[in-house]
Request: fold
Amino acid sequence: MKRLFLAAAALATAFSAVGAPSQDTPAGEQRFRSLYKELVETNTTLSVGSCTLAAERMAARLKAAGFADSDLEVFVAPGHPKEGGLIALYTGREPKLPAILLLAHIDVVEAKREDWTRDPFTLVEENGSFYARGSVDDKSEAAIWVDTLIRYRGENYRPRHTLKLALTCGEETAGAFNGAEWLTKNRRKEIDAGFALNEGASGELDANGQKVSLDIEAGEKFPQNYRLEVTNPGGHSSRPVRDNAIYHLAAALTRISGYDFPAQFTDGNRAYFAGMAKIQAGKGETAVANAMNAFLKDPADAAALALVSAKDPSWNATLRTTCVATMLEAGHATNALPQRARANVNCRIFPGVSPDAVRAKLEELAADSAVKVTELETRGPTAAPPPLTPAVLGPIEKLAGEFFPGVPVLPILQAGATDGEFTNAVGIPTYGFAPTFFGPDLGHIHGLNEYMGVKSLLEGREFLYRLVKAYAEAK
Reply:
């Protein structure tokens, strides 16, 4: 970790140098809203969208703000004309110092108009929230990074450390081209940095909308898809038999759905539950707090684990490997017995657990030789998370105290997966952090009617604007 240059002793110096700037002007906020709207409304789904177009539009915003052509590059890998991305350079006054990388993906999950209340690719502001696909994941942070560089340029601010921006495509689709991975393999020098800021963790709200904690990623689980498949000779539907491909598959999936992988612990989720136990106790949730403390003391306390796991799916996800059926395909005609039935099971694997071990467990749970379990393409490399040192946490905790008094900053083991797996694997310590807050529904990320609170987005914008400055001035 020699490259993690932010020494704890430099934090006070960095903050005194940056100061506490006032809120942006109304014109600046309007510019950000326009930029965010343009990015969100640029369809970047794998099926019909274009990340390249989104990257070009963000590059145009930066160029209009005064960035030179030589500091901007819309990169397009051979064979992937619509899956391009953007690299931007903001040279610091001491260019020999390690740079800071601002990383975000601009592709989004598919969205069907007929399923949504509103057009998923039209940004709608309603009841204090922005609704659209990508309004959160991850165009909110991508827009903030672009806007932050525009604001710095408008102020003629020269950071001590060079800042780099990388907007990439392909994070949301396993097996597709991934821009972050491509950059680490082909353009490593252009994104080289002492550390990176990325998506991966945010703030938590309770069911009443009260702020509970501000989280920072301390590791993430490994995503892996498995195919469960049954083949059969089939036949005429007028002559049904028990040896039915759909029934074999359905029974196997039912058995898998009833299984909980064992709870496991890392420094990240231990620290999270230690902090969350105090929060729950302060809210009067004594039983939950006691259960968290109980399994932290005795990881084999089944009753305590069951209570906490059932209380919140996010808590359950950060405790163990999880596997869930996400797609089904079966049959070939309405009047024929199925010749094939297939399901995709998406697993989020706890650090240190091998994909082969999970496949073996799925086979055991299926308990049917007719069900073939295949491990599909691996998304990317595994990498140990970088340590959350005081140098990294200090600026976040200081700003959190100013923006959100009384709200603790907690490390968290991220149940999802980010492009940080690629940058961490090549030696760029990558920290997932976004100072925006979500309730138990997580803003319907990946689901119907994804939304971002307007006030939260604007607060997050100011927070990150100041956070990057604090890091950029550190010695």
Summary: The domain at 8-200+418-472 is CATH 3.40.630.10 (Aminopeptidase). The CA atoms of residues 39 and 54 lie 6 Å apart. The longest strand covers residues 211-220. Residues 1-22 have pLDDT under 50 and may be disordered.
